[in-house]
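[SOLVED] Need 3D model of a two-part complex

Original post:
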Amino acid sequence: MSGNVVRLLEHLDEPGLAEIDTYERLGGYRALRKALFEMDSESILAELKGSGLRGRGGAGFSMGMKAGFMPQGTMDKYLCCNADESEPGTFNNRVLMQRNPHLLIEGIVIGAVAAGANKAFIYIRGEYELQAGILERAVAEAYDKGFLGEDILGSEHSVSLVVHRGAGAYICGEESALLDSLEGKRGNPRLKPPFPANRGLYQGPTLINNVETLCNVPAIITNGADWFKQLGTEKSAGTKVVSVSGSVQRPGNYEVVLGTPVREIIYGLAGGPPEGRTVKAFFPGGSSAPVLTGDDLDLTYDFETMAEAGSMLGSGAIIVIDDSQPLVPLALRLAQFYRHESCGKCTPCREGTNWTVKMLERIDAGEATPMDLEIMAQVQTNIIGNCLCVLGDSMAMPIGSMIAKFRDEFERHIEQARERNEAALAEPLGAGELAASGFSGPA
Amino acid sequence: MSRDASLSRDEALRGDRTIASARNVASTKPSVGSGWDRPADLTKDPAIVPQLAETPVPEHLRVEIEGYMARYPERRSAVIPALHAAQRVHGWCSPEAMRQVAAVMRVTPAYLSSIASFYDMLNEEPVGRHAIYVCTSVACHLSDAKRVFDAIAEAGADLEDTQIREFECLGACDMAPMASVDGRYIGPLDVSDAHEIIAAVREGRAPLPGRGLEDSDQRVPDRGGA
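Solution:
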């Protein structure tokens, strides 16, 4: 199967694509007209379900099913587009929003019509100032042309859309934390159930989808569910924009058919690691995904294969680690990220991330013994599944997988750091060194 | 009365209170929530919702915040944009800025503080009007981003009114190692770029023209790559 296709990234290099006239000239907003005038919400939902489109943000849940959970009735219903893309290694939503904002808007309006939602929001991370500005301009254009607002194109459907900027918090990418943040609270995850489809934003029924998921919607409406399923595997239909970064020669976004071998993505598209290096490990789905090793390069890149291999497709971000990169500092940096981003609501996550950082610092400094690896692995097990959301798990799974798969490297690191310390102690310190070390004698 | 009672009405209206000792906080590792270890000041009066009539708020700020409140079904949703707006005016979420937002939004300053302390881009300390975020997260870490951060922090050690800090993944791993300078993404960076970045910030121009995210976001498959 050929890896490289262009569906979502089509026209991306077209100058002025972010402007509505160019987008319409290239066939934009035709899917919306079809959805409004030739279909009803049931047939749109049926098409989405039939397409097998799965959420591209991380969990991989069927988009059509999720939209189908929205209750009937005439109350205010909400659609939130999750554009908080903060998963380390992930930058595929960024390019879609920056280059093709109207594709997202069209997907949102069709999604809202399918779910019966009348109020939509794009929750974009605060750091994406360039992209938020582009989206705001595009939304204004769409309002002017009547694709948003009251009585869209005379169809009696009404959808409002607000671009809401976050302010720097990874946790707000978790859907229930996103809702709290959008309501003007601290971004703490909520207890589930109730699920957002029943009680979400402002306690109303809410559908939450990732940017890339919604960007897939217009083409499904235009070409039909069967067209979408032509590419991909049985359980992973369609294409995925994969962000490849880390130790590769051509980092970037690549659209691939789901089911493409990982080797083809890392070596074929991204150019592989630098000359003379090999792939030691890689995160297949953002930094929250358990690492796979150089032996796993021939696995195919799809939801089910990654899950069978003990990892996940996650946000579709491959971070490559070559054989020159030591794992302990990387694991430490990873754990620091989750410690910083833990919202502090659940004890296992708040304390577990903190203790993991401390233990990794000890390992890095040569103050640990191999027994500390056992304790650290145990801490990870005690985090998983014990919190309201998966932030803690997102640290515990990759760290746990690193210890399990590269235990000898961790042990070697401990041993070498210890030997270094001992050698340093064996040498008597000169007066200058004493002063530099901050030692000022007994007080 | 609160600590900022000495602030004159004119100063408050201008909103350009001097940022005293706005030294950049060049942390060596990502910070754990600031203010965590500080005891509460029990001598202060309980914070109530300040009256708009008694709180001088710059007109443009009030209008902007009211515009945000009108966008949402519930006005509280506007806290993040409102605090951002106040931060743009005051340089940081100062007690004065918080009181102004609280008066317009009809919430307590304490509520706003609970928000400002949660989000990385809102500052409850006078860290500086300009922000240089250097990404040192996982993908950038693999590209030796820490050295780039150290070089920028060193070059900008005497830079006034600017916050230089390590930041978590900024979503631009394709240009790793990278930084965000007042919201503009630049990269890939090298240690040797540090002086030019700081010089540009000092002179008020955009650093590294041609190397921003808006200049090239290519790398679409089969169209050249890097």
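Edit: Residues 432 and 438 of chain A are 10 Å apart (CA to CA).
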